[in-house]
Each structure stands twice: as C-alpha cells, then as structure tokens.
C-alpha cells in the first residue's frame, strides 16, 4: 500500500510540475511573440501557444478525473488548483 501511494504522489507531482512548466513556457513564448517582427517566427510561436493551451486542457481533464477519484487527497487538490490557474497573468 505504501508503495502505491508513493507512485501516485510521484505521478501527481510530475503533473503539477508539467502544468507549472506550461504556464512559464506560455509566458515566455507570449512575450517573444509580442516583440517579434519575423512573420515565420510569430507563426511558429503562435502554434506553440496553441499547443500549450491544448495540453493545459488535457491536464485539466486529467485533474478533474483524479479529483473525482481521490477527493480527499491533498496532492490531487493541489493539482486541481494549479490547473485552474490562468495561463496569463494580467498586470
């Protein structure tokens, strides 16, 4: 039983790290997109932005499934919270 919990916590931990990576990468790519003058580069950056948004939606779906299964799990609640945060932070 203890081994199972360690593996699941590690899995959720990896998903938490992934959603935070997506948020940080989105921020960097958005900045690059906004300051770039090269049309091809802007197109590639826009494609990456769309891919990051798509992966975020996949992670939100995974989060909802995990949260429904393990409602009292602190790690599942943290993962759900991280997924619900917006990609863009308005200043």
Structure description:
The chain starts with a helix and ends in a 7-residue tail after the last helix. It has one domain (2-84). It has 91 residues and is mainly α. Helix 1 runs antiparallel to helix 2 and helix 2 runs antiparallel to helix 3. The protein has helices at 2-35, 39-69, 74-84. The protein is 84% helix and 0% strand. The chain is elongated. The chain has three helices and no strands. The mean pLDDT is 88.
Rounded to the nearest angstrom, the radius of gyration is 16 Å
Backbone shape: elongated
Taking the alpha carbons of the first and last residues, their distance comes to 46 Å
Regions with little confidence, pLDDT below 50 for 5+ residues: none
Instruction: Tally the beta strands.
Output: 0
Which oligomeric form is depicted? Answer: single chain
Order of helices and strands: HHH
Share in helix: over 70%
Structural class: mainly alpha
Mean pLDDT: 88
Instruction: Tally the structural domains.
Output: 1
How large a portion of the residues is in β-strands, by DSSP E? under 5%
Largest sheet: number of strands, sense, barrel closure = none
Q: How many helices does DSSP assign?
A: 3
Topology (SSEs and partners):
Layout: H1 2-35, H2 39-69, H3 74-84
Helix pairs in contact: 1-2, 1-3, 2-3
Features:
3 helices, about 90 residues, about 0% strand, mainly alpha, about 85% helix, elongated
Concise summary:
The protein has 91 residues and is mostly helical. It has helices at 2-35, 39-69, 74-84.
């Amino acid at each position: 039983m203890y081994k199972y919990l360690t593996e699941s916590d590690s899995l959720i931990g990896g998903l938490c790290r992934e959603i935070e990576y997506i948020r940080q990468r989105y921020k960097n790519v958005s900045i690059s997109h906004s300051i770039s003058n090269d049309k091809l580069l802007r197109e590639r950056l826009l494609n990456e932005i769309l891919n990051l948004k798509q992966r975020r939606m996949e992670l939100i779906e995974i989060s909802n499934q995990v949260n429904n299964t393990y409602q009292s799990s602190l790690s599942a609640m943290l993962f759900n919270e991280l997924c619900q945060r917006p990609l863009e932070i308005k200043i």
